[in-house]
Design brief:
It comes from Herbiconiux sp. A18JL235. By secondary structure, this protein is an alpha/beta fold. The chain contains 18 helices and 20 strands. The strands form 4 sheets. A 6-stranded mixed beta sheet has the order 6-7-8-4-9-10, sandwiched between helices. The radius of gyration is 32 Å and the shape is globular.
């Protein structure tokens, strides 16, 4: 039996759930008897992929019904999913969630005094002004007379970033927004509604640095209770409490993520020490039992010798033997009991110590000499950047500048006959990715391509990584130049692996083993299983259909297919690889990439990930298509 209800109680907890169980139609259990609370402030909900964080949010929001258990909230709940699926023809007012109120308000202003209009407006007579103020806070450049889709908005020319937009902006369509803008507007709409409870699921996933900062500013003074699932370290520092979903239990710490992390490390250090002490105590008890057995055996041997020598009457010897056996039995029982107790203490102590799983791969050498040119990126200003040898290059930039388009252009360069070895164009400058003078070009190509993009014509359609945030792709915005300057790329090798944001090229019906064998047909299945185990894919997970795996497991299958390809890829291209990965999975990704000895080109908004990855060079792709080399210590994105 399950239930979900709202109450006006002024109790401390904004959300309370007891014995919450949720089972998917295929019988897999996402949550099993979970109990806990979320307080009235801002709470970060963290946990490994597959622990049920998103499922819990959907249950609280009423989008899923629990198999059993109860959920009680103190009022209406607003919810932002990881992926917004919106009609491109919907208005910004609809995205903000104020369209019905705004329609009623405008009808009243036009002279329609029907009671249902007043019911729709309620107390929100200033909703239009508050909505425009909320949009102004986003600093999207929609100044007076400007709006989404205007060239001045796209280039940052014209209206001031903080200027209040005109009321006509509310009637614009969602199709004129970039994916990142749509996500920001949706979040602003939830805040505008002043609901008692709001749930945000990975709100900064597809946002650039400026967008993440704007979400952080909204969270700082969020009205009502807020529960946010995120792996954005900066956002996790803006909360009042951190709740972790781990091993089927929810535990809450009264502080931001960094404080929670420090506390966890202290707890784990103490738990590890307790486990060592318990193990020592167990060894001591076992030694004492062995010593006791030795003494008992010595006494028994002495008694037998005395009896054989005739020094003790037979009747007396029998009595002594019986008493010795009883005494020995009691002694053994006591030692066994103490050993069992010590073993139980060890088991309990070990259970409190978390297993830290590390990825250690033994990958084949892709044979990428330092003098070998792998690819080149060409800026709109004629600058040519060579990716040479096993270099690691990060590509950053604001949402909508065309980073994904550039990657797809690079990946498809072989299919349309372009070459990275035709020399530089007139008037262009050339440099290696590390900033040094260009070395010798080696234009040979060999092998095959893994994960290449399907069609170059898709490049512009898939433009902007943030398009995923609204569940659509968005090409050039209405009012923007039809053919703006853009960067391009050319490959000098066919052995390329591409990991897209969507992971949509995995066969959902195939197993992890089958997917990797397609990329490495000459590698023995036992070898693949061993390497998958090193990627933390073990046991039944290797043979289950990919559709049944968690997001983190699917990501590791896609990564394994690239890293274990035969022949090994010489260039690995990753597009926002940390999206939807939990924090421990990000660490594991860094470990996996550390074992790869080829060239790497990665697009990411995740500064913490890039810091751990330590690329040789970072380039920013600007809105006008230029490639600007950055110092990793400097800010890496523009709004």
């Amino acid at each position: 039996m399950s239930s979900s209800s709202h109450t006006s109680s002024s109790a401390e907890a904004a959300i309370t759930f007891r014995g919450l169980t949720f089972e998917w139609p295929d019988g897999s259990v996402a949550l099993d008897g979970l109990s806990g609370t979320f307080g009235p402030g801002r709470t970060a909900l963290i946990g490994d992929n597959g622990t049920g964080k998103s499922t819990l949010l959907k249950l609280v929001a009423g989008l899923l019904q629990p198999s059993s258990g109860t959920i009680v909230t103190t009022g209406e709940v607003g919810y932002l999913p990881q992926t917004l699926t919106l009609d491109a023809g919907a208005s910004i007012a609809e995205l903000l969630g104020i369209d019905s109120t705004l329609t009623a308000l405008r009808a009243i202003e036009a002279g329609d005094v029907a009671p249902h209009h007043f019911d729709a407006v309620g107390d929100d007579w200033d909703v239009e002004a508050r909505a425009l103020e909320a949009l102004a806070r986003l600093e999207l450049g929609w100044g007076e007379g400007a709006g989404p889709g205007d060239a001045s908005h796209r280039t940052g020319v014209g209206a001031g970033a903080a200027a209040t937009p005109s009321a006509t902006v509310l009637d614009r369509t969602v199709g004129t927004l970039s994916g990142g803008e749509a996500m920001l507007v949706a979040i602003a709409g939830l805040r505008l509604r002043n609901l008692p409870i709001t749930l945000l699921d990975e709100p900064t996933n597809n946002l650039d640095r400026a967008g993440r900062a704007r979400v952080g500013a909204l969270v700082d003074d969020w009205p009502g209770a807020l529960v946010v699932v995120s792996h954005d370290l900066e956002l996790l520092e803006r909360v009042d409490a951190t709740a972790e979903l781990h091993a089927g239990r929810l535990t809450t710490f009264g502080g931001a993520y960094s404080a929670w992390r420090e506390n966890l490390e202290r707890e784990q250090s103490a738990a590890a020490q307790a486990a060592r002490s318990a193990e020592q105590a167990l060894k001591a008890e076992k030694r004492q039992r062995i010593e006791a057995e030795t003494k008992l055996a010595r006494r028994a041997r002495t008694a037998r010798q005395a009896q054989l020598s005739g020094g003790i009457p037979r009747i007396l010897a029998g009595g002594l033997a019986n008493r010795a056996q009883v005494s020995a039995g009691a002694l053994r029982s006591g030692h066994d009991s103490r050993v069992d107790s010590a073993q139980a203490a060890v088991d309990a102590a070990d259970a409190r110590v978390r297993e830290v799983q590390h990825i250690r791969l033994d990958l084949p050498d892709p044979a990428v000499p330092r003098a070998r040119r792998i690819a080149e990126l060409r800026g709109s200003d004629g600058t040519v950047v060579h990716l040479q040898g096993p270099e690691r290059v990060a590509l950053v930039g604001a949402n909508g500048v065309g980073k994904t388009t550039l990657l797809l252009d690079l990946l498809n360069s072989r299919t349309d006959g372009r070459s990275a070895n035709g020399g530089s164009t007139n008037g262009s400058s050339e440099r290696r990715a590390d900033g040094s003078a260009d070395g010798r070009a080696d234009g040979s190509s060999e092998g095959r391509t893994d994960g290449r993009a399907d069609d170059r014509s898709d490049a512009r359609a898939v433009d902007r990584a943030d398009a995923q945030a609204v569940g659509r792709t968005d090409g050039p915005t209405a009012g923007a130049p039809l053919d703006p300057p853009r960067a391009s790329g050319v490959l000098a090798t066919d052995r390329v692996g591409y990991l897209s944001q969507r992971l949509d090229d995995l066969d959902p019906e195939a197993s992890a083993l089958e997917e990797v064998r397609r990329a490495a047909p000459g590698v023995a299945p036992a070898r693949i299983r061993d390497q998958l185990a090193r990627l933390l894919l073990r046991g039944a997970a290797v043979d289950r259909p990919i559709a049944s795996l968690s997001g983190g497991e699917r990501f590791r299958v896609a990564l394994a297919r690239l890293l274990l390809a035969d022949p090994p890829v010489q260039l690995l291209v990753l597009d926002e690889p940390t999206n939807n990965l939990d924090l421990s999975s990000v660490e594991q990704l860094v470990e996996a990439l550390a074992a790869y000895r080829g060239a790497l080109l990665v697009v990411s908004h995740d500064d913490a990930f890039l810091d751990r990855l330590a690329p040789d060079t970072t380039f920013e792709l600007t809105r006008d298509g230029r490639l600007v080399r950055l110092d990793r210590e400097a800010p890496i994105e523009t709004s």
